[in-house]
Automatic annotation (TrEMBL):
Any one GO cellular component localisation term in the record: cytoplasm
Class of this enzyme: transferase
Top-level taxonomy: Bacteria, Pseudomonadati, Pseudomonadota, Alphaproteobacteria, Hyphomicrobiales
Protein name, per record: Beta-ketoacyl-[acyl-carrier-protein] synthase III
Record-linked InterPro entries: ACP_syn_III_C, ACP_syn_III_N, FabH, Thiolase-like
Summary of subunit composition and partner proteins: Homodimer.
Domain Beta-ketoacyl-[acyl-carrier-protein] synthase III N-terminal: 107-190
Catalytic activity: malonyl-[ACP] + acetyl-CoA + H(+) = 3-oxobutanoyl-[ACP] + CO2 + CoA
Role of this protein: Catalyzes the condensation reaction of fatty acid synthesis by the addition to an acyl acceptor of two carbons from malonyl-ACP. Catalyzes the first condensation reaction which initiates fatty acid synthesis and may therefore play a role in governing the total rate of fatty acid production. Possesses both acetoacetyl-ACP synthase and acetyl transacylase activities. Its substrate specificity determines the biosynthesis of branched-chain and/or straight-chain of fatty acids.
GO terms for biological process, alphabetical: fatty acid biosynthetic process
This enzyme's EC code(s): 2.3.1.180
Involved pathway(s): Lipid metabolism; fatty acid biosynthesis
Region span, ACP-binding: 251-255
């Protein structure tokens, strides 16, 4: 059975770090409020010369180096983003060009914070369907560009960054012991649109717009939706929370992560947390957190890793993979 096995990982963060205290002169807030409610202490914010394409390219180059591969070895790029450089062409194609690739194909996926989980699931299907052998999966965002910097209830929550994986087709036995993507579940429900959306777009206002969120409403639904989709993934794979080595959730809010892990019975020591340093980087949050835990030696070859995300739409999903 063909499996999509991880060959390399990379990440990139903007140069500038913005601490919670840096908001204190801009909006009525405090380090204490932000840290207590969200777990966030700082985030990286892109300068004018740092874009979704440039951050995505940097993460992709690091993932290729880590895999010992070059752009020539890649036949598909899937970029998860809600903050593309332009409405079109797809920013994935711009990254393809920046990498010097004129072969293969590239496209963007838009599922907001769940984008990376959707992209891994999609890349896995292309690989198992025989349409690609090696795929660069990138999550890259510059949410700072769509924030209303006068709205204290949203501007303190988000950050910019990118993460990337190289996955490759390898033969597996078709069991849970295989390396690679083992199971996935995706969901969406547009009835929740008004709780988290951007109030502009090419076909409506002709503007880029700003992020709008009813934080309390999102919070109310998050834990139930996240745990449901994870339980579906566990049941598809025939495992329980105890079998997991690592839980790498979307990094929106530490309280949501803690409550989800507790409900699922996942021990705190198995949960990777980066929301304190990165804030919510939307589709980049899961690969950025993965990159941290791989680079510091926590996630090792053979470990069973659960990825999860929930975001605007609502969209949500989970992916189980063996590193
Ligand atoms: N500093 C100080 N006070 C603030 C701030 C701030 N930055 N922001 C809001 N407040 C105030 C509010 O105005 C409110 O004041 P009031 O009681 O006088 O009206 C009070 O704090 C409480 O506000 P709540 O919204 O009820 O606070 P809550 O405890 O719910 O925390 C938060 C807010 C952090 C946004 C939380 O609801 C949350 O994390 N929600 C989930 C958001 C999320 O995960 N979004 C990402 C989804 S992923 C994606 O796709 C983008």
């Amino acid at each position: 059975m063909i499996r999509s096995v991880v060959r390399g990982i990379g990440s990139a963060l903007p140069r500038r770090i913005m601490k919670n205290t840096d908001f204190e002169g801009m909006v009525e807030t405090s380090d204490e409020w932000i840290a207590q409610r969200t777990g966030i202490r700082q985030r990286h914010i892109a300068a004018d010369d740092e874009t979704t394409a440039s951050l995505g390219e940097a993460a992709a180059r690091e993932a290729l180096d880590n895999a010992g591969l070059t752009p020539d070895d890649i036949d598909l790029i899937v970029l998860a983003t809600s903050t593309p450089n332009n409405t079109f062409p797809a920013t994935a194609v711009e990254i393809q060009q920046r990498l010097g690739m004129r072969h293969g194909f590239a496209f963007d996926m838009q599922a907001v914070c769940s984008g990376f989980v959707y992209a891994v699931t999609t890349a896995d299907l292309y690989i198992r369907g025989g349409l690609a052998r090696r795929v660069l999966i990138i999550g890259s965002e510059t949410f700072s560009r769509i924030l209303d910097w006068n709205d204290r209830s949203t501007c303190v929550l988000f950050g910019d960054g990118a993460g990337a994986l190289v996955v490759e087709a390898q033969e597996g036995a078709g069991t849970i012991a295989d390396q690679g993507v083992l199971a996935a579940s995706l969901r969406s429900d547009g009835t929740h649109r008004e709780k988290l959306y951007v109030d502009g777009g090419p076909s409506t206002t002709g503007t880029v717009g700003h992020l709008r969120m009813e934080g309390r409403e999102v919070f109310k639904h998050a834990v139930g939706m996240i745990t449901d989709v994870i339980e579906a993934t566990f049941s598809e794979a025939g495992i329980t929370a105890e079998d997991l080595d690592w839980f790498v959730p979307h990094q929106a809010n530490k309280r949501i992560i803690d409550a989800s892990a507790k409900k699922l019975g996942i021990a705190d020591a198995k949960v990777v947390i980066t929301v304190d340093r990165h804030g919510n980087t939307s589709a980049a949050s899961v690969p950025l957190a993965l990159a941290v835990a791989v680079k510091d030696g926590r996630i090792r070859k053979g470990d069973l890793v659960l990825l999860e995300a929930m975001g605007g739409g609502f969209t949500w999903g989970a992916v189980l993979l063996r590193w």
